[in-house]
Specification:
Blueprint lengths: L12 H9 L2 H27 L2 H45 L1 H4 L5 E12 L15 H13 L1 H10 L4 H5 L2 E6 L3 E8 L2 H25 L3 E13 L2 H30 L9 H34 L6 H8 L3 E5 L2 H4 L3 H10 L7 H15 L5 E5 L4 H12 L6 E4 L7 H6 L5 E7 L5 H13 L3 E8 L1
Parallel strand pairs: 5-9, 6-7, 6-8, 8-9
Antiparallel strand pairs: 1-3, 1-4, 2-3
């Protein structure tokens, strides 16, 4: 049987985990020690610090300052929350009632009128100084009169609209120093024309007032148009207003979360309670540190250790046939927790020895191929090697079983080795070393002998 001398060790995470769990006793002890030490130290120092009158006064002042800041922040958040809710209500009302927001950008009715304003101003070529031209002032006065709040309210009432929504539909502009342009957009032809007529009538109604205020003039409607058009800029405006409502709702949710996350400052506890809380916190930290320290140490030792941990690793590393596994005396006497861990790991803690020896002898009969003599040797305790040899003598027929010892240390065992046909290695978890097993196998194979298999005490 050739062993794999090019074996690359891989860490079995399951074995690593159980090696850590088997250290539960030192883990618990160190965790308790550090918990008591750190927790007690922090509790004592905290109690001494808070028992000082100056310290108590400082803590109380800090609490009052934090409480004032908290109350101010609560008031500010409440005001901001109410403002956001009011903005949302106004925006929803605007989107619902505004005519401009309900118009289809692809079917907008527009009514337009061009009014020509003419004064008696004339340029006299023979005069160095000309009379002033009041046409511009007249146009500006008409524009101001048509857009003032009183006139807008009057037209809006006649049109069954609110003034703020009417202003979005009407545009009054001055063009070419003589033209007054009135533009009205609406959802249908009739409404657009009716609103335009009211503004044109308004110009006529303001004429006498303007003449008295500035100069005599004439007002002539030179052009009027009515039709449907496409205005994609209106679609952008409508989208912007809808997005504003979404943004306001997002702000409302964010502000509600911010208010929910606010925590009122805790009133200073008594010295005893504060000391207890501090001690408990540091006690938990100490407990975790203690458990972690042992776990880390166990992991390092597992990785660096050369001692045999399990029969499975022997099989994987050296391609050895595992004839059987037997429990050590300490494994039999283990407590409930250790027995439970051993059972979960699959170790030979609850096996019947006689039954296991029967399986070992059966495996030997299958693997020996007519061998006349077998040596039982290995790096386990000599008593365990003798025990295995004695048990096998009573179960193997026509096979001489020789009890050897450690082939690396016992000269008598080496002398017996050439006389046997095969060798059964007996290894002990926690005592035998992988390097020793490798050297034993080298010696056996150098003499042309066969390693039949191994018996592992766990």
């Amino acid at each position: 049987m050739d062993y794999n001398n090019e074996y690359e060790q891989e860490i079995d995470l399951k074995e690593l985990m159980f090696s850590v769990l088997h250290k539960w006793r030192p883990m618990v002890i160190l965790a308790v020690v550090l918990m008591v030490a750190l927790g007690g130290y922090k509790a004592v120092t905290t109690f001494r610090a808070l028992s000082d009158p100056d310290a108590l006064e400082e803590v109380q002042e800090k609490y009052e300052e934090d409480l004032r800041n908290y109350n101010k922040k609560v008031e500010a958040n409440d005001r901001e929350l109410e403002n956001i809710k009011e903005d949302i209500a106004n925006q929803e009302e605007y989107l619902e009632k505004s005519v401009l927001m309900s118009l289809s950008p692809y079917d907008v009715w527009e009514a337009r009128a061009e009014l020509f304003i003419k004064t008696d101003y004339e340029i006299i070529p023979s005069m160095t100084y000309q009379n002033p031209d009041f046409t511009g002032a007249v146009l500006q006065l008409y524009q101001s009169a048509l857009t003032n709040a009183e006139f807008m309210d009057k037209v809006a009432k006649e049109s069954n609209l609110e003034s703020r929504f009417l202003k979005e539909l009407v545009t009054i502009s001055v063009r070419n120093n003589n033209l007054l342009s009135i533009q009205v957009r609406h959802e249908d032809k009739k409404s657009a024309e009716e609103v335009l007529d009211r503004f044109v009538d308004g110009v006529k109604g303001f004429k006498n007032q303007v003449q008295r205020s500035i100069v005599n003039h004439t007002v002539t409607e030179v052009d009027r148009s009515l039709g449907s058009l496409v205005d994609l800029s209106m679609a952008d405006r409508q989208k912007s207003e809808s997005d504003r409502l979404i943004s306001l709702n997002d702000r409302l949710e964010e502000k509600n979360r911010e208010i929910e996350d606010m925590e009122e400052p805790e009133k200073p506890a008594s010295s005893y309670m504060s000391a207890f809380k501090s001690g408990a916190k540091y006690g938990i930290v100490g407990c975790v540190l203690g458990a972690f320290a042992i776990a880390f140490f166990a992991c390092v030792m597992f990785v660096l250790s050369d001692k045999v941990y399990s029969a499975k690793e022997l099989k994987n590393r050296f391609r050895l046939k595992v004839l059987g596994t037997l429990p050590l005396a300490k494994t039999k006497k283990a407590g409930k927790i250790d027995r439970w861990l051993n059972e979960m790991e699959g170790r030979a803690c609850g096996k019947d020895e006689e039954e296991e020896y029967g399986l070992i002898s059966a495996n030997l009969n299958n693997y020996t191929d007519g061998a006349k003599s077998i040596m039982v040797a290995g790096s386990a305790d000599k008593d365990l090697i003798d025990q295995v040899a004695e048990k096998l003598r009573g179960k193997l027929e026509n096979v001489e079983v020789l009890s050897g010892g450690n082939l690396l240390l016992n000269a008598e065992s080496l002398k017996k080795l050439p006389e046997c046909d095969g060798v059964v290695l007996v290894e002990q978890c926690g005592l035998s070393k992988y390097s020793s097993v490798e050297l034993e196998m080298e010696k056996i194979q150098d003499l042309g002998k066969k390693v039949v298999g191994c018996v592992v005490f766990e």
